[in-house]
Amino acid sequence: MKHGFVFFLVLISISAKAQSQETITKYLDSAWNKLPDAKNAAYYRTLEVTNQLSLVRTYYISGKLKDVTECDRDNPVIRNGKSLSYYEDGTLESEEHSVDGKETGVYKTYYKSGKPEKEMIRHPLPGVADDVFVHYYTEDGKDQISSGNGIVKVPIEGDFDQYEEIRDSLTVSLYNVHKTTQDTVYLTIEKIAEYRGGLSALARDVSASLRYPKSARRSGLQGTVFVSFVIDKQGMITDVEVLKGFDAACDDEAMAVVKSLKPWIPGESRGKIVKCRFVLPIKFKLRP
């Protein structure tokens, strides 16, 4: 009787473990593109379904946890609960919360040292899209927006320093300053650059110029090319590059289309005309 009782408990344990087994769902490169296998992968993602929810985890290829997100049990694409992300050494990088796929509540990030970096409130009121800043600390613990206003230097790699201007606890602009030339390019500003004639004219001109590369057409390739470019103070397009593409010929065609566009109305910050960066998605879709 005693042995049978133990055996029964073991069966329950094995059954429960099998129902919530964690399985690998995809491999990803450093740019988060899906790969067919672990070769050249920087990360891999797993799924674990429990009685109450789904847990989606991303791991560094080393096997260390990068992030874990609570999702809808029947539709793991929908975030529904807490999300935590980690640096590769295991230090907490960020924590946030989502309800029915929408980020809401307190969002916190941390420096690699483990010290708090910033704290925000996501979508504090119904219909309000802006995130409200509560704190934005330097690594030595100084709050840079104690009064709700300030210009914060954002740590990034490369040739630029990045700055975020916060006014009344809201981001009003984000801009990069070249470390050598001091050239400034705005990423988000109060008055964004506008194509002459508006979005409908932009869509019309892109459609009129776009040609489907024959090689891509023959191979049945479809996808979206994300083209980044700078609109200078005269409204001219410069520094065109592909942020994310899917085929070399289509990438080249998308860049050529952007370069052929008419001049824009330049963006403004604090009433002054400034350079700003724009990202335009260009779709290549074959007709049935």
Automatic annotation (TrEMBL):
<dbReference type="InterPro" id="IPR051045">
    <property type="entry name" value="TonB-dependent_transducer"/>
</dbReference>
<keyword id="KW-0997">Cell inner membrane</keyword>
<keyword id="KW-0653">Protein transport</keyword>
<keyword id="KW-1133">Transmembrane helix</keyword>
<keyword id="KW-0813">Transport</keyword>
<protein>
    <submittedName>
        <fullName>TonB family C-terminal domain-containing protein</fullName>
    </submittedName>
</protein>
<keyword id="KW-1003">Cell membrane</keyword>
<keyword id="KW-0732">Signal</keyword>
<feature type="domain" description="TonB C-terminal">
    <location>
        <begin position="197"/>
        <end position="288"/>
    </location>
</feature>
<dbReference type="GO" id="GO:0031992">
    <property type="term" value="F:energy transducer activity"/>
</dbReference>
<comment type="similarity">
    <text>Belongs to the TonB family.</text>
</comment>
<dbReference type="Pfam" id="PF03544">
    <property type="entry name" value="TonB_C"/>
</dbReference>
<feature type="signal peptide">
    <location>
        <begin position="1"/>
        <end position="18"/>
    </location>
</feature>
<dbReference type="GO" id="GO:0015031">
    <property type="term" value="P:protein transport"/>
</dbReference>
<dbReference type="InterPro" id="IPR037682">
    <property type="entry name" value="TonB_C"/>
</dbReference>
<dbReference type="GO" id="GO:0098797">
    <property type="term" value="C:plasma membrane protein complex"/>
</dbReference>
<dbReference type="GO" id="GO:0055085">
    <property type="term" value="P:transmembrane transport"/>
</dbReference>
<keyword id="KW-0472">Membrane</keyword>
<dbReference type="InterPro" id="IPR006260">
    <property type="entry name" value="TonB/TolA_C"/>
</dbReference>
<keyword id="KW-0812">Transmembrane</keyword>
